[in-house]
Amino acid sequence: MPKNEHRPGYKKAKVGWIPDEWKEVALEDIAQIERGKFSARPRNDPKYYGGPYPFLQTGDVSTSDGIVYSYSQTLNASGLAVSKLFPSGTLLVTIAANIGDVAEVPFDFACPDSLVAVQANENIHRFWLKCFLKAKKKYFVSKATQNAQANINLQTIRPTLVQLPPLLEQEAIAAVLVCWDKAIRHLEVKIGKRRLVKQGLMQKLLSGRIRLPGFSKPWMNTRLEGLGVFSKGAGISKEELSTKGAPCIRYGEIYTVHNFVLKEFHSFVNPALAAISVKITANDLLFAGSGETAEEIGKSVAYMGDVEAYAGGDIILLSVNPVKGRADYLSYYLNTIGRRELNKLGQGQSVVHIYPKNLSKVNLALPPLEEQQAIAKVLATADSEIDTLERKLALFKDQKKFLLNNLVAGTIRLPQFCNHGKHRKARK
Is 426's pLDDT higher than 50? Predict the structure, then answer.
């Protein structure tokens, strides 16, 4: 059954069932919609650049709900003559790469024809319109033409049907979503500050520039080969993965989903494959044995758990002797202060490799075992605080997305507007 069908206070429209007080209009009826202007020829001509007018491009419209202030080109008067200046407060919609991303621009600007400028008419709340456009992202993507690069045009955007609430309700919807945006930004700032604090802690604690209370014994210079035994994982292809079974880690996941300490598994293999795979155990340090650049090669993650798990190919394991060292401490060190030395070990061009014989020669100043444990605990606590905030941020973003999609469609309404239709009919 379609959403809101035959609900009291709702009426049927082309776009679906909408509240009685709402109208169904075309987007072009409530906003001025215009593509940016800057043809391919002047876009590549340096004589048009170097002036005071910001020239935004598709990459400047951020998927995180804003403008990335990193635009590399500005137009001079000649450039502006072959383009167009849009006023502050204009909404930008991407129609090529990242179709349907939306941002409000807080300054006058120009842009190419890969962006569409949307200016709200009088009696249309700008932030409400921005929220409506964001909610239509999937719709715009579905309407894209599949050429060399997917894109949409003005003939697709302009007639887009809009469920239009009265201005008072637009303002109320916008106010609610602004509150969620503020809460999200507050959390993002808080997370950023916590990361800076943790980064400072790592630099000081892992270098020995500051010592935790109660520790004064000297650190010993050692090589990784003196801390344990190196081995290699065995190939586990993507096609061999299961949705359940024995947990495993593939080398690409060290880059994409794990940081410092392995906390949860994202891949699994069946028992038959597990039986012929390489097992990882507590206090193992797992290195990515290949990568695309020398700067990323050798990223590592520590495994401190007790669940039976397995390592895929292109993973180098260092099984750390628990009497000599802790894998979590080594992971914090080698992924920060020790990165520079690892970067020197990569071999290859299009694909960079690192080998156990090279890793085994890596030198480091190692604290006594008890101090390693204490430092790792401090950094793990900082990680845990950041993880908690990031989970809360993800929840806030999900909740805001739910509200955005449903408030602008009228599927849910704010309490002060739920009985308007009843009251109007009663007065009649």
Answer: no
User: Is 1 within a domain?
Assistant: no
Instruction: Please indicate, yes or no, if residue 339 is contained in any of the structural domains.
Output: yes
pLDDT at 47 over 50: yes
125 and 70 Cβ atoms separated by less than 8 Å: no
What's the rounded Cα separation, in Å, for the pair 166 and 127?
Answer: 14
**What's the token pair of residue 418?**
């739920």
Task: Give the residue from 317, 309, 311 showing the smallest Cα distance to 247.
Answer: 309
105 and 192 share a domain?
no
In a domain, 10, yes or no: no
Does residue 231 form part of some domain?
Answer: yes
In terms of domains, do 241 and 346 share one? Answer: yes
Give the domain extent around 153: 23-163
Residues 351, 406, single domain; the answer is: no
Structure tokens at 383: 């990680």
Residue where a domain terminates, one of 117, 134, 163: 163
| CATH number, domain with residue 70 | 3.90.220.20
Taking only the tens place, the pLDDT of each residue in 346-405 is: 776 668 888 999 999 999 999 999 999 999 999 999 999 999 999 999 999 999 999 999
Beta bridge partners of 290: 353
CA angle 137–180–399, rounded 5-degree value = 65
The pair of structure tokens assigned to 287 is 């290195």
Residues in Cβ contact with 40 at an 8 Å cutoff, skipping those fewer than 6 apart: none
User: For 109, phi and psi rounded to 5 degrees?
Assistant: -160, 165
Pick the closest to residue 413 from 180, 168, 183 (CA basis): 168
Give me the half-sphere count of Cα atoms (radius 13 Å) on the Cβ side of residue 374: 14
Residues 52-94 have pLDDT tens digits of: 999 998 888 865 566 776 677 899 999 999 899 999 999 999 9
Does residue 147 share a domain with residue 39?
yes
| Residue 147 to residues 35, 80, 96, 144, 151, Cα–Cα distance (Å) | 19, 30, 11, 9, 8
Q: How far is CA 285 from the centre of its chain?
A: 27
Contacts of 321 (CB under 8 A, 6+ apart): 227, 228
pTM value > 0.85: no
Task: Compute the radius of gyration of the chain from its Cα atoms.
Answer: 28
The DSSP result for 235-252, as a single string, is ---GGG-BSSSEEEE-HH
| Residue after which a domain boundary falls, among 310, 333, 365 | 365
